[in-house]
Specification:
With 306 residues, this protein is α+β, with helices and mostly antiparallel strands. It is built from 13 helices and 7 strands. It binds glutamic acid (GLU).
């Protein structure tokens, strides 16, 4: 029998209210610091199309690193295992924008979800498409079934002006021969990629192919084969929530990808996707209320992969 998640989402929304002022909004991208932390949204998208929402589930937010998931899916779908010669599949054990590991590992990023890895993935897309950022946006529009998705040009410009660390990472990789396009082009495209805005409903729907073993649930379009979809889910579990992926697996028990805009998308394979958003972050850079909400969801529903 189909489960009605509405009352669970409503009660989670109430439960996390006290946490909202306790998170810290990301301020290293100036435009993000202007967002009120007192917001929380949650959406569940079931593979049969049922959608449940609570709170600010229809408010668009800056998806930031969550886009790394879609960029990886697009690159993986086109290039297959070739991408693994340029980026690894291990948790980094370092902050997402760290430079040190890259130096002693000869410019090969640990995984596609840290910034270095995402820059390499953007570089791979830039070799495939005339404009990688536009190709990714169109891919995400198709996955979300929402042609209105767009870049936030103010956020992109704001990040570009302060992207010193990402420039440093890109230059280091260029020196090691692991960035094929000009640094400037990749940073510009990557900042545009990170600026794409979505709401929880759109985000949950866009990731639903990953809980449907690689194909879009409403029309069957195959994005990834079964095995590649499994592998991408595994990467989300081990590397998707910054340097707290172990703790996230312990508390929530679902593959997920987070971003510094406060969004997290997680999935229950074969059943549903769930997106949460709350801009206040914890010390690891994950949404404070978002992680708690997901923990409550898997506890209350007993829906975790473990
Ligand atoms: N655009 C952000 C950066 O590169 C993304 C960070 C994130 O969400 O993890 O710093």
């Amino acid at each position: 029998m189909a489960i009605n998640y509405q009352h669970i989402l409503d009660s989670i929304c109430e439960e996390v209210k006290d946490l909202l002022p306790k998170g810290k909004v990301a301020d290293y991208i100036p435009q993000l610091s202007a967002v009120s932390p007192l917001q929380f949204g949650i959406a569940v998208y079931c593979l049969d199309g049922r959608t449940y929402t609570a709170g600010n589930a229809h408010t668009r937010f800056s998806t930031q690193s969550v886009t790394k998931l879609f960029a990886l899916a697009l690159a993986f779908s086109r290039e297959g295992d070739k991408i693994w010669s340029r980026v690894g599949r291990e948790p980094s054990g370092n902050p997402f924008n760290s430079l040190s590991q890259l130096e002693y590992e000869q410019g090969i990023p640990r995984n596609p979800f840290i910034n270095a890895g995402a820059l390499v993935i953007h570089d791979i897309l830039a070799a495939r498409f005339v404009q990688a950022d536009i190709a990714l946006l169109q891919f995400m529009r198709m996955l979300a079934r929402e042609p209105g998705l767009d870049f936030d040009r103010t956020v992109a410009a704001s990040e570009h002006q302060t992207a010193h660390r990402n420039y440093a990472i890109a230059h280091l990789m260029k020196d090691f021969g692991n960035l094929h396009n000009p640094v400037e082009d990749i940073i510009y495209g990557y900042c545009r990629q990170c600026s794409i805005t979505m709401n929880c409903v759109e985000l949950a729907r866009a990731a639903s192919f990953l809980s449907n073993h690689g194909s879009i649930p409403w029309d069957g379009t195959r994005i990834l084969d079964y095995s590649s979809s499994k592998r991408l889910n595994a990467l989300m579990l081990t590397c998707g929530t910054y340097d707290a992926a172990g703790d996230f697996a312990y508390r929530v028990g679902l593959p997920a990808k987070s971003g510094v805009g406060g969004g997290i998308v997680a999935l229950v394979p074969g059943e549903l996707t769930i997106a949460v958003w709350s801009p206040g972050l914890d010390a690891a850079g994950n949404s404070l209320a978002g992680v708690t909400a997901l923990e409550r969801f898997t506890t209350l529903t007993t829906r975790s992969i473990f």
